[in-house]
Design a protein that fits this description.
With 305 residues, the chain is mainly alpha-helical. 72% of the residues lie in helices and 5% in strands. The radius of gyration is 19 Å and the shape is globular.
């Protein structure tokens, strides 16, 4: 099966089925990662080197066995052709991303701030109890732009580069970063390897995602924001996609937010007007159009090759 067909069928499966409600492989992987964490995480009183070493060992034991099994199973033949789009389907989540952000949009439209706060709390790590409508809108759009890279385009990129095992390897590393990549006393050193691996694997896909946003919106403003604002963001990859996306949509994002009880003064992203509810839908449309663009480029690349 060609790469383009595999990507198409993976996206089609996601459109038709969404993320599995039960028995998602990442749920079992998360349980395995939690077990490894309990076995290997060290006291914060231990040396930084020891904490990082055990975190690296836990990372290897979490990802390598699963990746090796998938590599062996998908090496070739008819079975591999059928498994490839299914494996990619389990690694992407565009429908889930759009559904979660629309679950924020609807109560905002109804001026139901309590429900909107509850919905946004499901998809962001910042504290949401005291968020106002503007902060909720910003958070929804920011997570749409960022997770467009993490949950859609980066897995597709690594599928193109290394097949099903590439997409899976990326998705597992991204999951571990979400679990262990917090910069607090508990995870700062243990999660160091997971965070750095995720940064490396996301570097090029994030920039290709930002380029997609740039091509599909206000290109001039997207490039300006990408170039001038992303260097001030804490994440080298999230900053790129969020700044380019904000410029593309011609809105202002970023600003201070509370994470785990600590106020963070995040960079101001984008230019133009203050976000409104409909911008959540515009951000969702940007993800859909970017997916179409990527699929078109893949088809074109295969036809030329």
């Amino acid at each position: 099966m060609s790469i383009a067909l595999a990507v198409f069928f993976a996206l089609l499966l996601d459109i038709l089925l969404g993320e599995p409600k039960k028995w998602h492989p990442l749920v079992f992987f998360g349980q395995w990662a939690n077990y490894l964490e309990r076995q290997f995480i060290q006291s914060s009183h231990e040396s930084k080197i020891r904490q990082k070493a055990y975190g690296f060992l836990a990372l290897v034991l979490a990802i390598l066995p699963v990746s090796m099994v998938v590599f062996i199973v998908t090496r070739g033949g008819l079975l591999a052709s059928y498994l490839s789009p299914i494996m990619l389907y389990f690694c992407i989540a565009p429908r889930s991303l759009l559904q979660h952000t629309l679950a924020v949009y609807r109560p905002l439209q109804q001026e139901n701030l309590v429900q909107a706060r509850l919905a946004i709390s499901m998809i962001v790590s910042r504290e949401t109890e005291k968020m106002d409508e503007l902060q909720i809108r910003k958070a929804a759009i920011e997570t749409t732009l960022e997770n467009g890279a993490d949950a859609v385009f980066a897995p597709i990129f690594w599928f193109i580069i290394a097949g099903p095992v590439g997409a899976l390897f990326y998705r597992l590393s991204n999951t571990l970063d979400a679990m262990w990549g917090y910069k607090n006393a508990h995870y700062l050193h243990f999660g160091f390897a997971a965070a750095r691996l995720d940064d490396v694997l996301n570097w090029l896909p994030a920039r290709l995602t930002a380029l997609s946003y740039l091509l599909l919106g206000d290109s001039k403003k997207a490039w300006f924001c990408w170039r001038t604002q992303s260097p001030f963001c804490e994440s080298p990859n999230a900053g790129v996609v969020m700044s380019a996306g904000a410029g593309c949509l011609n809105v202002q994002l970023g600003g201070s937010a509370i994470y785990h009880g600590v106020l963070k003064n995040k960079a101001i992203l984008g230019v133009g007007r203050v976000v409104v509810n409909e911008d959540i839908k515009r951000a969702n449309l940007l993800i859909v159009l970017s997916a179409v663009l990527w699929l078109g480029v893949i088809i074109l690349g295969e036809s030329i090759a």
